[in-house]
Amino acid sequence: MSAPAPAPGPTGPPASVSDESPATDGALPAADRPHGEETPSAEDDRRNVEDRYRGWSVEAIAADVAARSHPFHVAVENLVHDFNIGSIVRSANAFGARTVHVVGRRRWNRRGAMVTDRYLDVRHQPDAEALHRWAAAEGLAVVGVDNVAGALPLETVELPERCVLLFGAEGPGLSEAALAGCDVVVGISQFGSTRSVNVGAAAAVVMHAWVRRWVFGQQVVPG
């Protein structure tokens, strides 16, 4: 027997939502964003969204997600058309990142995003230097994530509350230009035989570490 349709959230969708994308400068072009879609009813909504968003328009969901986002951003270098970028976008949506910055190539493989990019501010930065300039102007610390020499163990570092979590491409990791502009570089401690953790998995680990610290208040004890 099918379950009854979930009741709408206590506040419902925003009363007024702009027709424009929530992204501003650096936003991906309109051709890359969905448009002209009809909003399904709550009973017929089979999209990959939480039950409380059933029956909401794409614009209304995106506006609500943006309003409840956390003050950390995610950036990933798109140097080799990495298929992991979609997975990173999906995790960024789940953990409430404010923005995802795709650095390098503008086009990226969306398959792993499972259409979560429709509800998230995804911007393009032409190169690492442009990302670092943007972060400096916004007063955001840049935290590079890569198991390179000199990287501090993520488990012993308190991530800044207002920051950009910067990830490299699968395989080559962060570029020299990306590393050069980081305020701190952290690595995820590993205990097996593999040389590195998949970048999509690494991004989820680091985003969750931010959430544990700044949403749940679980402070890091330096090693």
UniProtKB/TrEMBL annotation:
Transmembrane regions: none
First and last residue of the signal peptide: none
Listed Gene3D superfamilies: 3.40.1280.10
GO biological process per UniProt: methylation
Compositional bias ranges of the Basic and acidic residues kind: 32-49
Compositional bias of kind Pro residues: 1-13
Presence of the UniProt keyword Mitochondrion in the record: no
Pfam families in the record: SpoU_methylase
Keywords in alphabetical order: Methyltransferase, Transferase
Name the record gives this protein: TrmH family RNA methyltransferase
